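Work package 3, deliverable 3.1, input record:
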Amino acid sequence: MEGTLKRAVIIGAGNVATHLASALENTAGIAIDTVWSRNIENASRIAAGLKSAVATDEISAIPRYADLYLIAVSDDAIADIASSMPPVNGMVAHTSGTVPIDILATVSCKGYGSFYPLQTFSKDRALDLANVPFFIEGNDEETAKALYGPAARISTRVIYADSSLRGKLHIAAVFASNFANALWGVADDILAETGLGLDILHPLLEETLSKAVLMGPDNAQTGPAKRNDQHTINSHLAKLTDPRLKELYSGLTNLIIARQCQK
Amino acid sequence: MEGTLKRAVIIGAGNVATHLASALENTAGIAIDTVWSRNIENASRIAAGLKSAVATDEISAIPRYADLYLIAVSDDAIADIASSMPPVNGMVAHTSGTVPIDILATVSCKGYGSFYPLQTFSKDRALDLANVPFFIEGNDEETAKALYGPAARISTRVIYADSSLRGKLHIAAVFASNFANALWGVADDILAETGLGLDILHPLLEETLSKAVLMGPDNAQTGPAKRNDQHTINSHLAKLTDPRLKELYSGLTNLIIARQCQK
């Protein structure tokens, strides 16, 4: 059997589906046959941007003989899709960083796996997928290899990753992305009191990120906690009135002090 | 009296001194006369990169009649410098985001203030200062205006900021930069268990930052806490063995949930 995938069905019409449908067709050379969404307008919008895809909102109406069925829906909706989808004669993959692939075992007569781009997608923001890491898992080696192919045509960074690796990756991403973003929200609130906004910190944050990646976060660390500057730390704590923010300030300060000791 | 500054003395030879000496001379058109450092080699290294500056390690040897004395040393060292420096016939400014300007009151016969670039500086990294916000404070309007001039030739974003504004800015920067960097350290450790490093998250973090600045952090928020996805939250907490990280995970998750409720 040849592992090359030529025809695909896209299940879902959100941000990930939008970006991947276009990349699969235009960069990986896989023709998108059908786009399914519960909402026919969303499916039609994606299909309209593709060469010859049709849109449908009936899951039973998707063709059974495509090579790849890409389930690009929210994590919570994957189980629903898997149970309502007819069994198909092609590989099935979801795009989730967290959902185990076994959830797809009964859907595919070929193989199943995960095709996970590690990025935050917005419908209206152009993204260079060439730099986005793709994590690939298959229920067997043949499936993994077949899914690796198109990913490697889209991106320069493709990595085989089982559910355990994807799980760790997800926790790391929650700390690094979701939680950092929450701290930027705190900063934005503090700045709002002065009439400024988060954009004033943008050059600083860009450079902080570049240095963290280049030098490692511990070597790049600066600030009062790094210097164990109790005078500044206490003056900051005295100025924070929200008990939640006080506690976070202390917790993160202690984390930095502890990390410096370990090194 | 004319507010234009023509000749400057740089006190300090660290990263900020290195970048500002060059920008003042080459971009703002202020000739650097002298570079002082406790360490003559560091002072000489900076002076060598300038048109006609001399290096010294004797604070009593600095010329008394320059227009600007820029004290670019660590926050903790400013008081020491201020008490050991001879009174001078020019304006004196420090480059700190946190130290009140009154610390310089006895040093200058003209005026004193703060000339604070909000950025993290490294000696060996080229930086485009044109995008770096400068915060200016003077003990009187004339001094503030005189300091504003060269800042506005170096950067497109110059803002008058008293000590209270700089104080809030600093707390915001600690949350947004220092604490985010600490979370990247946590992520780096988790990734190290899989053989990956923080660089695998770089495209995600770049995009997370761009979206936070563009859309606001609350609108840009994603992840299990944003969705109040207790199943994923509990599975992450179960996998974290370090009690400090467990507590931070809970604290930051609760912060995100609370912020979503407020909006």
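Chain B touches chain A through 84 residues (CB under 8 Å).
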